[in-house]
Amino acid sequence: MCCARREAEKMLDTTNINLPRHVGVIMDGNGRWAKKRGVPRWEGHREGARVFRRIGEYAADIGVKYLTFYAFSTENWSRPPEEVAAIMQLFREYLLEGDERIKENEEKGMRLRFIGDRSGLPADIVNLIEKAERESADKSRVYVNIALNYGGRDEIVGSVKKIAQKVACGEMKPDDITQDDISGGLYTAGQPDPDLIIRPSGEYRISNFLLWQSAYSEFWYSDVLWPDFTTDDFDRAVLAYSGRNRRFGNIG
Ligand code: FPP
């Protein structure tokens, strides 16, 4: 985005705000957005990808440090093959903008991490993911996770398997297993749990997203379909979060 446009745009004044450190976003409603317009579902996803970029940039600009976008779940493979192919193509295009990405990363300090099971993804996409992660590895202004072929239950199973392996070879005793051991085996290892999870499109579900990590997350829902989601909507979510009283099981 050009600097003149960024300067001109309205940004949330975060001075007296309790800003979430980590925001998770379930990008939902692309299909309904397309249906409302009588266009193919992939057009909704294309628009969703545009909004993903926009919200990612904006969130970083107002100071959110960690972002996790739910882009494709382990269950999404059951969609019609042409829709799956169209979504994969969007990932490919995003990743293929290598030069632009390097520039964007320089400017934005964006470190990319793709979370999910790569073994199920097309080989060219896996190569591009590895390249994008490599090229952004020294950035630290904002950490952006993209959940691709991701399932929260699978992620927990993966972590438990790593621990079981250590127990099996005598490196660890069952009684010594801690919550940190489970967290440390997740794709998000080393990152703070999400403070806020945003779900647009009028659905009120977690849909297998960051199941372990969301134990104490605050949730914010909206009827807006993801392709219509704006930076004002993001501000509303952040302001609502800022006013919440998080007790983490304690008394208020
Ligand atoms: C859910 O909406 C959305 C998806 C399964 C795909 C999300 C993908 C994107 C927004 C593209 C992301 C691109 C990049 C580059 C990260 P839905 O299709 O279930 O909507 P519906 O509930 O209205 O049918």
Q: Explain this structure to me?
A:
The chain is an alpha/beta fold and 252 residues long. It has a single domain (20-153, 192-242), classed as 3-Layer(aba) Sandwich (Undecaprenyl pyrophosphate synthetase). Helices cover 44% and strands 14% of the residues. It is built from nine helices and six strands, in the order αβααβααβαβααββα. The protein has helices at residues 3-8, 30-37, 41-62, 81-96, 98-108, 123-135, 152-168, 179-184, 231-242, and strands spanning 22-26, 66-73, 110-115, 142-150, 196-199, 218-221. The protein has a six-stranded parallel sheet with strand order 3-4-2-1-5-6, sandwiched between helices. Helix 6 (123-135) links the parallel strand 3 (110-115) and strand 4. Helix 2 (30-37) packs across helix 3 (41-62), helix 3 packs parallel to helix 4 (81-96) and helix 4 (81-96) runs parallel beside helix 6. Farnesyl diphosphate binds at residues 27-32, 45, 48-49, 52, 71-72, 76, 87, 90-91, 94, 146, 201.
- CATH topology heading: Undecaprenyl pyrophosphate synthetase
Main structural class: alpha/beta
Cα radius of gyration in angstroms: 19 Å
Q: What does the largest sheet look like? A: 6 strands, parallel
Strand order of the largest sheet: 3-4-2-1-5-6
Ligand identities:
farnesyl diphosphate
Unreliable stretches: 1-5
Note the total helix count.
9
Structural domain count = 1
Could you say which overall geometry the principal axes of the C-alpha atoms support?
Answer: globular
Distance between the termini: 43 Å
- What is the CATH top level name? Alpha Beta
